[in-house]
Amino acid sequence: MDSIHLRIPGPTPIPPRIQQAMLAPMIGHRSGEFKRLYAEVTAQLPPLFGTRQRVLVLTASGTAALEAAAVNAVAPGEEVIVVVTGAFGDRFAAICERYGLITRRLEVAWGEAADPDRLRAFLRQHPKAKAVFLTYCETSTGVLNPVAELARVVREESEALVIVDGVSAIGGAPCEMDSWGLDIVVTGSQKALMLPPGLALVAVSERAWQAIEANPAPRFYLDLLAYRKAAEEASSPYTPAVSLFFGLREALAMIEEETLDAAVARHALLRDMTRAAIKALGLPLLADDAAASPTVTAVGPFDGSVLDPEALRACLRKRHGLVLAGGQKKLKGRIFRIGHMGWCAPFDILAVIAALETGLAELGYPVALGKGVQAAQEVYVRHVSRAHHGSAV
Ligand SMILES: *Cc1c(COP(=O)(O)O)cnc(C)c1O
């Protein structure tokens, strides 16, 4: 079986035209050609974040962007709040702890979204917090946290910076960094941006720049001031992943052709199709409808069920070439996750659900074949008929 269908929440499949663009012959990173490429790409990035600020591009994975946010915005010994809704919030807190920040974790049950009222009370308990770290899409649970509301609460209660992990959200979920009052928003190339891993994108507000300029804490490769200085000359302080820049230009062209609004609407449709199918098959969903992410769906937990999600994933991988993700940390072995971000169409969801039904039947799990596919098709058909009839529902 050499046909692989990668439906994990990153890395995601690469469209052929992006793959092709990345084959362009190498150019010098100090050349005029690269400067033009850099300028073109960085001019198109801010709308993805909903900002008028410059977006910096680091050659690194998404975690480096999380680390860059933490080391630049706050200094050791300062107090921060980290809202932990799953494995990625946990990672944000671990980074803060490692750098000697006084880290106050607001722990939320995995599978639930953070509650703005709880955050308000927590801010009142910790009035000295210099920054609040949020995860927009908690990839480990398939929850989309209400970052706009959470940021509003932070602004009402304190002067703390709002720092957001948008890695599995940017490009697939709406983001209005400036009007929501977010100070740092980061993402990585291998999620909704349809690129291979290797680029980390960081958007920084005026307020955050002031904190970064005043911050004496040492940093070198991740010093955002170096990236800002180089960006003023359409350049990168160290050798960037030039081929990924070629790919990024093509990815941004694809998003422009589809339009960002349409891409965001498509991700919502993919979420609705996936969830309707899972419900029709009688399988549990980890997150409620109101908290469900448009980019990844967590199915489970299967505690006490005859269905072993690891056996199901192995069957789908081996017999159908479909790669789904398992659970992380405390959800390991208890759930499976379907990634539907980036280069993913309604057709792909129908194929994933059809394979899933087949795999369940192969494992002897009682399943009404076609029921999930039908539910997903119905969501799709309702969506397109609404679109054809204008705004009428
Ligand atoms: C993928 C992901 C990351 C970054 O992971 P890397 O492996 O370092 O690229 C960070 N946060 C979230 C929410 C993610 O989904």
Automatic annotation (TrEMBL):
Domain Aminotransferase class V: 26-328
Pfam families, per the entry: Aminotran_5
Any one Gene Ontology BP term: glycine biosynthetic process, by transamination of glyoxylate
Binding positions for substrate per the UniProt entry: 337
Cofactor(s) needed: pyridoxal 5'-phosphate
Modified residues (N6-(pyridoxal phosphate)lysine): 191
InterPro entries with a match to the protein in the record: Aminotrans_V_dom, Aminotrans_V_PyrdxlP_BS, PyrdxlP-dep_Trfase, PyrdxlP-dep_Trfase_major, PyrdxlP-dep_Trfase_small, SP_NH2Trfase/AEP_transaminase
GO molecular function, one term: alanine-glyoxylate transaminase activity
Keywords, comma-separated and alphabetical: Aminotransferase, Pyridoxal phosphate, Transferase
Family, per entry: Belongs to the class-V pyridoxal-phosphate-dependent aminotransferase family.
Identification of the protein by name: Class V aminotransferase
